[in-house]
């Protein structure tokens, strides 16, 4: 699609992405690639620098793989600005996508500031992977514009957008976000605001059971992963995926789901707790079920 056609069909001209981590950087990239102007916000320069580096690297790889052209890469980068000032970052935005760490209080604080600084009709979206949207948006005066946009890592490659509809979200907001999913090249599903939504609830469940199987000596981590990769055509086995996502991240989701769904299925295995306590968090720490050093 031409640049002009893209901007004409784009439902959100300006998007603010809050948090320049792995998810925030990926979200900023896909929105800018689709023609939106993007303002990427974080609290420190070093996080913004790292986020912009992630975007540069991913776009370079995209060009290398023939997924976009060098001029498209340059145009995408031109559409992204970074900012350390939250109020300024969201002032012009028609859509705000929050991708800060998975801490309820932090997300609530961020949205309280966003609600003050943004225009009244701005759509407010969270990229939370499991927290209840009803709690995240509890203090927002106009719940009709609040929604979940759950992306998957690596964002530029993964096709799914899990749209989470909290009580009070208007039909207009849902339809705008659903249409925007198409604009940014994602296939949407719509899920009720329930613990773990569809993806994290099932994904974490498989990951925890795989850890219990390692613990019980059923097979090695490599063979359990191979079972799901070759036997079920999962692109990546559940233990390698746990390493990629981070054992600490998955542990906190498991604890949350255990409590919210009151189900022993989400009880965190002893081995997982021990590995997290030892600092074996997966890829980011150099060691998890695999050696990443
Ligand atoms: N930009 C654009 N396209 C790219 C790219 C880039 N930077 N890098 C790679 N690609 C393309 C490739 O060209 C290739 O496209 P084709 O299929 O058209 O050839 C495709 O992406 C796959 O790339 P590779 O062949 O290089 O890599 P791979 O086959 O090893 O796959 C993977 C890598 C997609 C990450 C795959 O291993 C996978 O799907 N893993 C599972 C990921 C997953 O489950 N993520 C969800 C995590 S949970 C989550 O994110 C939710 C949460 O809340 C925490």
| Rounded mean pLDDT score | 95
Succession of helices and strands: HEHEHHEHEHEHEEHEHHHHH
Query: What top-tier CATH class of the largest domain fits best?
Result: Alpha Beta
Oligomer: single chain
**How many β strands by DSSP?**
8
Number of alpha- plus pi-helical segments: 13
Q: In what range is the share of β-strand residues?
A: 5-15%
List bound small molecules: acetoacetyl-coenzyme A
> Would you tell me the structural class of the helices and strands?
alpha/beta
Cα-atom Rg, whole angstroms? 19 Å
Task: Tell me, briefly, the overall form.
Answer: globular
Task: List descriptors.
globular; alpha/beta; 49% helix; binds acetoacetyl-coenzyme A; Rossmann fold; 293 residues; N-(1-d-carboxylethyl)-l-norvaline Dehydrogenase, domain 2
Written description of the protein model:
- This protein is of the alpha/beta class.
- It folds into 2 domains: 3-192, NAD(P)-binding Rossmann-like Domain (Rossmann fold, 3-Layer(aba) Sandwich), CATH 3.40.50; 200-285, Orthogonal Bundle (N-(1-d-carboxylethyl)-l-norvaline Dehydrogenase, domain 2).
- It contains 13 helices and 8 strands.
- An 8-stranded mixed sheet has the order 3-2-1-4-5-6-7-8, sandwiched between helices.
- Acetoacetyl-coenzyme A binds next to helix 3, helix 9 and helix 11.
Q: Quick summary of this structure?
A:
The chain has 293 residues and is of the alpha/beta class.
Helix-strand blueprint:
Layout: H1 3-9, E1 14-18, H2 22-33, E2 37-41, H3 45-64, H4 70-78, E3 80-83, H5 86-91, E4 95-98, H6 104-117, E5 123-126, H7 133-136, E6 146-150, E7 160-165, H8 171-183, E8 187-192, H9 199-215, H10 221-231, H11 238-245, H12 247-261, H13 270-277
Parallel strand pairs: 1-2, 1-4, 2-3, 4-5, 5-6, 7-8
Antiparallel strand pairs: 6-7
Helix pairs in contact: 2-3, 9-11, 9-12
Bound molecules: acetoacetyl-coenzyme A.
Residues 58, 61-62, 65, 67, 129, 152-154, 156-158, 200, 203, 235-236, 241, 245 line the site of acetoacetyl-coenzyme A.
């Amino acid at each position: 699609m031409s640049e002009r056609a893209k901007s004409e069909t784009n439902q959100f001209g300006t998007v603010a992405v809050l948090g320049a981590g792995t998810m925030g950087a990926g979200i900023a990239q896909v929105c800018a690639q689709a023609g939106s102007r993007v303002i990427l916000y974080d609290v420190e320069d070093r996080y913004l620098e790292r986020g912009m580096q992630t975007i540069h690297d991913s776009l370079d790889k995209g060009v290398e793989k023939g997924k976009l052209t060098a001029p498209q890469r340059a145009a995408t980068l031109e559409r992204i600005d970074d900012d350390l000032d939250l109020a300024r970052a969201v002032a012009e935005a028609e859509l705000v996508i929050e991708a800060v760490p998975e801490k309820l209080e932090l997300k609530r604080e961020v949205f309280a500031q966003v609600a003050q600084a943004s225009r009244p009709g701005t759509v407010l979206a969270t990229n939370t992977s499991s927290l209840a949207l009803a709690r995240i948006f509890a203090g927002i005066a106009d719940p009709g514009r609040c929604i979940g946009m759950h992306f998957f890592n690596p964002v530029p490659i993964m096709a799914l957008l899990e749209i989470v509809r909290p009580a009070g979200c208007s039909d207009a907001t849902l339809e705008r976000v659903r249409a925007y999913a198409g604009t940014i090249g994602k296939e949407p599903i719509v899920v009720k605001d329930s613990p773990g939504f569809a993806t994290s609830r099932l994904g974490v469940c498989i990951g925890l059971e795989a850890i219990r199987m390692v613990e019980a000596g059923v097979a090695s981590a490599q063979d359990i992963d191979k079972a799901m990769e070759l036997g079920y055509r999962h692109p990546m086995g559940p233990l390698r995926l746990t390493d990629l996502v981070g054992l600490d991240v998955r542990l906190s989701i498991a604890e949350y789901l255990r409590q919210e769904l009151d189900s022993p299925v989400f009880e965190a295995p002893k081995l997982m707790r021990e590995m997290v306590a030892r600092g074996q968090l997966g890829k980011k720490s150099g060691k998890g079920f695999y050696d990443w050093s």
